[in-house]
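Hey, quick one: can you model this chain's 3D structure?
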Amino acid sequence: MTPPRQSILVVDDTPANLQLLDGMLKECGYRVRPVTNGAHALRAVRTEPPDLVLLDVTMPEMNGYDVCRQLKADPATADIPVLFISALSETEDKLRAFEAGGVDYVSKPFQFAEVAARVKTHLQLRRQQRELQESLLRERNLERLRDQLTHLIVHDMRSPLLALKLTMDVLQPSAPPEDAELVAGAKAEIEGLVEMVAQLLDVAKMESGTLQPLLTPVNLPELAQSVLAGLKPLVRETEVRFEAPATLTVQADRELIRRVLLNLMTNALKLARRGHVAIRLIPTEGGARIEVQDDGPGIAPELHTVIFEKFGQVEREHAKYGTALGLAFAKMAVEAHYGTIGVTSAEGQGSTFWFTLPANAAPAQ
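Sure thing. Here's the predicted structure for all 365 residues.
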């Protein structure tokens, strides 16, 4: 199928110029629409947007600068390239054309070969821009469909996983001694899967803006200690230093912050190469700062933001910081509380993951 010819709107109040440009551009294979003033030009563009506007500057009632400004002010026509063609040849005139939104400027009297070359160039750029926009739109649509499918699958996984977890809770106390470790390991893996499912569902909710933190007073030292107690299988061979005041209370969603702490502590305990982890809860003027430090392989500075991206993952010396969603979830959860999160690390020197929470979750002033 032959693509439609590209269209050019030529605006000039001099009939001889219109006739000349009309004939020459048609010979080049373009579809040309000539108009003689700015008001007609604006109507023509809005009725049938062209691929390019070839615009004179000096016209009665409305000059070319004003026409271009109006086109650029309208989102429906702002992307149409405007090429000025004028007898005004001073630098100031050209600057005014570019300030109005023009992409190029040709001085009269013109050589048509120059006009044709510039028209061709800007039409090619226009076509490439459209192709890129269409490609991005297709990618966004595919990503949305993928996310919807993932959400449906994960949602359906939640019930059988919770049933498995309940079954393991029932079986664990009655398991024979020789099977106790096996049952405990299976239960831990199932709990990990349940947490991953919860992260996927909550990330989707956060991205859509439908998940809002349920704020209550949370004593962070008590919460951190309870999370650490639940990680006993990982703590057995690790020296954990816990530094915190007896009380450090913020307004937060207890469950969301619990899962942030769980992510950061689990990573640190798994990656501690020499068995040293430090957890610090520090009062600040506006709230609290939480630090989780390990002596693991560390992360190069250029990767510090990658690990917080959705499905971002960094692998160093066969040790992984973050699951596919763990740190992305942590970032979204902390930022939903108007806090900040980050990492201080260098390769071979361990890592300190940190986040801050305001005493009362509210936008920073």
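One thing worth noting: The chain has three domains: 7-110, 141-208, 216-358.
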